[in-house]
Each structure stands twice: as C-alpha cells, then as structure tokens.
Amino acid sequence: RSPAAMPAFRQVGEKQLPQEVVFMCWSPKRDLIALANRAGEVLLHRLANFQRVWSLPPNENTGKEVTALAWRPDGKILAFGLADTKRIILCDVEKPESLHSFSVDLAITYMHWMEVTEESSVLTSFYNAEDESNLLLPKLPALPKNYSTTAKIFSEEKSDEIMKLLGDVRLNALVLGGSSGFIEIYAYGMFKIATVNGVAGSCRGLCLSSDLKSLSVITEIRDSSDSEAEITYFQASKLDTSLLSSYLPEVTRMARKFTHISTLLQYIKLSLTCMCEAWEEILMQMDSRLTKFVQEKNTTTSVQDEFMQLLLWGKASLELQALLMNQLTVKGLKKLGQSIESSYSSIQKLVISHLQSGSEALLYHLSELKGMALWKQKYESLGLDASGIEEAITAVGSFILKANELLQVIDSSMKNFKAFFRWLYVAMLRMSEDHVLPELNKMTQKDITFVADFLTEHFNEAPELYNRKGKYFNVERVGQYLKDEDDDLVSPPNTEGNQWFNFLKNSTHLKESPLLFPYFPEKSLHFVKRQMEGIIDQCLQKPADVIGRSVHQAFCLSLYKISQSEDSTPQLFKLPFLWNDKTSNIHYVLFTILENSISKIHILRRHTDTSRSVSNGILAVEFGNILNNSINESSDSRCYSCLDAHFYDDETVTVVLKENVEQEGKERVLAQLPLSSVYTDEDQDRKFIWDSMGRLDERSGEIPTCTVVLENQWRVLENMKAQYVSVNGIRKVSCVLSSNLRHVRVFEMDVEDDGEVEEEEEEETT
Fold first, then answer.
1. Which of 44, 271, 487, 597 has the fewest Cβ atoms within 10 angstroms?
2. Whole domain around residue 532: which residue ranges?
3. pLDDT in tens, 140-173
C-alpha cells in the first residue's frame, strides 16, 4: 500500500503551547483533556481545535509543582497532587476552583482513580437507601455570600456543590503513590481508607483492579552505592487487597459515612471563618480607648469610679470629658453602637443556623457510625472502634455546649451595650449642651442599676491582662471566643452561684456519666473545635491502618535498569504503564528495554483465573517495515524504536515509534497495535519461564519476540518530534506531545467507516 493512501486517525487540533507540559490526562466521560505545565498551572482543553476551557494558576494555598493528575471516573472532578505543599486538590470540572483539599505526608508521584464495578443485591439496596439522612436532617443552610472566597463551596443557593463533591454512591477510590514506598487509598477521593506499607522505592505507576482484589504497583528503586552512575531499576509488585473486596458493602457504607463527616467538618470550619469575619476590629475600640485613658490620666481615681460618678452625679471630671468629647465623640459612639449591633447579630445568626445545624448533622452521622461499629461481625475487621467514636461524639457535644455559651455571651453583651450606650449618649449630649429629646431622658432606677452592674463587672482595671494582651480592659467579650491564637478565654463566663454547676461539683457519680458532655469553661471556641477535629481524625484514622496492614505482597519482579544519562525527560510520562482489563483477571505491564540501540516494547501479561491459578507471560514486540517507500534498502535496516505506549482499550495498545536509521526526515509514527496480532499462538508466550531472582533486562535475549507489520492502523506525524502520547479509548481520542513538551496534536482515532477496513496483520513469529 503506498503511503499516499488516506492516513488513519483524523487530526482535529494542533497547538504550540507557551509552557512545557508535564502532564496530560483525558477525561473519562467527555472530550476534555487536563494538562499541567512547568509553571504549575492546571489547564483544561477541549478536543476541538484544542481550545482552552479554563486554567487554574498556581497560588500559595495550593502550590506550584504539580506532580500527578487523575480524573474521577464520572469526569466531574479532577484531582491533582502538588509536591511543594504536599497537598491534593479536588477541582470542579465546570469552573477552576478547589472543592476539597487535604495534605499528605510525602510528595505524590502518581495517582490513579478507579470505580468499583461490582454489583450485588446488598450494594444496590444501599445505593438506593443512601439518602436516609436527607429525610431526617434539615438541609444545611448555605453560607452567606458576602464573606471571603474560602466559603465558595457551601455558599451556592442550593448545596448541590456538596453532592457534586460526594458524587455517586457507588464506591470509587483515589490511589496515591509517592516517594519511599508511600501508598494510600482514599475512598471517594476524600477519606483515607488504607495506608499500604511494605513497598520499596518511589511509585511510578499504580492500578487498583475494579473488583478491589489486587493493587499493582511499579516502583523505582535508586541504588546510591554506585556513585559513578546512579542506577534506577523498576520493579512490579502485586498486592493482595482482598479484605477490601470481601467487605465491599461495609467498606462502601463506612466510607460514605466518613465522607459525610469530613464535608460537615469543612462546613463547620467555614462557618467559623465567616463568624470571625463578621467580628470587626472596630469592636475593640472601647478597650483601646480606655487603656489609653488609663495611661495618660494624672488623677488617681480609677476609670470605673470616673464613670460611676458620671452615672450617679451627672458630673464628669475634665479628663473623662476630654476622652468622651474629643476622642470618642457623639458621632463615634453612634457608629460603635451600630457596629456592635450588626456584628453581634450576624454572629448570632451564624451560630444558630450554621454551627448548630452542622454539629447536629455531625452528631447524627457519628451516632450512625457508632451503631455500625457495634455490629462487630461486619465492621470490627475493618477497624471501626466504638469507643473511639464515643469519644468523638462527646467532643462534638462539648463543641455544641461552647457554641451555646457563645450565644448567651452575645445575648447579654447586646443588652448591656445597648443600655450603656444609651445612657452615655444622653450624658454626652448634656456635656455638649445639646438638646436632649425627652424620650431619651427617661432613666428608671432599674436602668441605672443595670448600667452600674455593667460598669462594676466590665470596667475594672486588670494589670495582669495588660501584660498578656497590652490592654487593661476586656469590655468586649465575644471576640475572645473567635480569636484563633488563644486557647484560654481572657474573661471566662462567671459560673459562681450557678446551681447546676454546684450540683455537678458535689455529685461524684455524675462527673463520669457518659450522658453529660464535658464542658470547658476556660477555653475558647477555636480550642474546642480543634480538639473535636483531632479526636474525629483519630477515630477515622484507625480503619486506614487496619485495612492497610491486611494488604500483602503477592509477587514482586525486577524489570530493568536505566542509566541516569537518559533521565533528563520529566518522570511524568515515563513508561512502565499498567492496565487491568474489564474483567480484572488480566493485568498488563508495558515497558521498553533497550536492545542493540533499539528500544523494544515488552508486554507482561499476568492472568488470574477464578481458580486463583496464575499464568505469566512476557513478549517483546518488534515493528517491521511500515513505510514501504524505500524498497531498495535492505528491509532489516528499517527498525523502529518505541518511544511511548499506552493501552487504548482492552484489545489495543497505542504506540509512538521512531525510525532507527540515522538520516534526514526521520519520521515519527503514531500507530495502533492490536493485541490479537501479538497473542496469536497461545502456547508461544509461555516459553519464557522467569524466576524472580534476576532482572528481566539481563535476560532480554531469552524473551520471545513477535514481529508485527501494521497494515493501516498508523499515521506518520509530519514535522513533529513526537515523543509522548495520551489516549482515551472510551472517547476514541489521542493527544501526542513533542519531545520539547510544547507542541501538541490531537487526533480522533476511529474515523474510518465501519467494516471497510479489516485488520490485515501479517504475523511472523520469530
């Protein structure tokens, strides 16, 4: 066939990009491709004309060095890992904003996000009954929009953002691999369900089978003993994760609960952020003005007495007059009064509608979780521990008590300030000899007593407070609950004479009662919240350790070494590549071994039957003469090195090839390699018997090679030094990237009419 024939695969876009691309990943459901570049941007492009949809620039909260990308199987969320901040960000596909993020201990080098395809009646009934909590719990009110951007996720009018984050009920798992053997599995991309140990080296590839039975890992082990050329070799390990698969319904249910809990914790955290923003600095004015007054005045009378004299005799000393009229002023007093009122009422609303409903929902889910933990035959082996959850419930209870205490403080502060400001306003009008409206002038004896009590309680100087906070007064009592830097309250609420407290103090039995939530009168709201988060984290951590310990290595194999010299390309595109077929019974590893300066693609196929018997086969593939235009040359001289290879679907591998002959116009080729042309004769791939002692590349001569001549499933990539490819067999698309990492071409792979082209492969088995 002459090369003038219609090239396979239709090119639909081409772009030169300003920054070097270090990652490409096709969306599983739509014609979108996510890219990450050297500058730390994450970009989303459309297939058509490679048009940009959005870009997420790096920022100091997330990080600058993207090292891994993965799509959630439903294509609605893109996850990426950052090395410099060791964070994982889950981003919305519709608009570039983070929906959820968490930190990990080590930098991530690879991510894989899979979905469980298993069906069972138990699971189906759970999928349908999942929304019980929606019937029992009131909907979480959306956070007010006018606060900072951190609260975006919950501030939509409808809280479907949370549902988008939780996604489908069917279990999906984000598997993270990192340096020095770090592997963690996160259910729904949010809750850590397993921490896997016992794998050496830094992770270069991961694949968790869709039935959760096995996890394949490829790691790179650096051997630093040889200082000359540092050598790296890859090994493939297969881990048995059967605990996850045998307890699938339980794992799904538990993970779902945990995901609800972590979204609620985030909701509570954001509500608190809004509360802190509602509390304004102007509320501190009273304290700072009075402190300055103490520092500057000459008389010995205390501030409290100065105000008392004004209250009782209607006369103020000249100094107090100067403070009130020149510094505070009538206008300033009005403004302060309004600020306090609006600020306190917004904080009050946030506590009542957001903090309380969030904490109640949290109590509900934790109590359900405790019920699950008590069902020992099902959940004990997954590490759910009822006593830990009990502690978490208690901690949430303490948090609710603290929030209620804050409500009481706000309530009494509002009353006190109102009465105090009203009285002070009239007194100041009199000083300036303005006309006082008669309705303002009425002060009953009760009002006077009220203000006197307020002055007695709030206006006494506290020298020890000055050393701690640089002020003598703490008239404003709400801010101390919301300030993050303090664990202890400056002026805790007065519990003297409280009958309930005295009753508790004197009763020995009630102190230990599990029905009473412990109360920390001295502590701030932030402290109690941090304590609650810590305890919940701890109780959610345990299953991850237990499940992680159950994972053990089924087999391990050393593949090959690479010398550091050729190691200049970014690690991100490197083979080896892992693939599980849909039945999850066949696992493939693709890798290349350099042999006589030709890099040959090798396919390692591992077959697990239901009977658990395992057959392994390794094949090398050579590509014969594709471009038949140079017939005069001897056919041996045209051989192809494989630059990159990826599974397109269960039957096909997409490869990028390069001619090995040194000459001008050396073309790069994009080709589809059908596995049917490789695995023709069943027995042939069993000839190579390996033992796990030596590395594969040392015995590469013994590996059977099959030569494939591609008839029409290929296309020459003109004017492009193609090097890497990323494919998506579901959407039938591919994206080729040049060796300088800036030139991109996208193709639709299946454009020929059905039935016209039969795959005419000639197989020569050498």
1. 597
2. 251-547
3. 888 877 665 554 556 554 455 666 677 778 889 9
